[in-house]
Amino acid sequence: MAHDPDQSSKGVHADAHRHAIDADAVQSRARAYATSKGIPFTPMRQRVLALLAASGKPMAAYEIAEKLSDARRVQAVQVYRALEFLQEAGCVHRLASQSAYFACDHLHGSGEMVVFMVCSQCGAVQEAASDLVARGLRGVAKTTGFKPLHPIIELEGECADCAIESVR
């Protein structure tokens, strides 16, 4: 296994509680989306999604390109095209704060308010949806005349596992 400097700086604990992604389910969903649109689920799209599902952490497009480059260099533009498709399919989310992407193996409702909780210690991302938070934010937006395009919130903090670890 190759040395990953990103992991060594975060310690062994970083891999100890990655959230499992059902790679088969997310691949099936992406394939079904492609079929419904009459477009191919290309090998590049499959590879990008498989890598994100296996990594369990957000990855930048250039990092994805580097990890997918074997005998032939993968260009970042190829990765960005695949990521665009995978986002449309609802299989990948983008963390704007990190310009990074991560796999998602469950469906979200149209316009559903999603909260991404990003652990600053290990990089794990948890997703949550809250009707209460959504109603509150929609109310504030309506009052101010603001029209949200992407109802996503990112919270940075410490996941439960890292919080326990930091108490020890």
UniProtKB/TrEMBL annotation:
Gene3D superfamilies: 3.30.1490.190, Winged helix-like DNA-binding domain superfamily/Winged helix DNA-binding domain. Keywords: DNA-binding, Metal-binding, Repressor, Transcription, Transcription regulation, Zinc. The keyword RNA-binding does not apply. Binds 1 zinc ion per subunit. Its cofactor is Zn(2+). Belongs to the Fur family. Pfam families: FUR (PF01475). One of its GO terms (biological process) is negative regulation of DNA-templated transcription. GO terms for cellular component: cytosol. Zn(2+) binds at residues 119, 122, 159, 162. This is Transcriptional repressor. One of its GO terms (molecular function) is DNA-binding transcription factor activity. Transmembrane segments: none annotated. It comes from Bradyrhizobium commune.
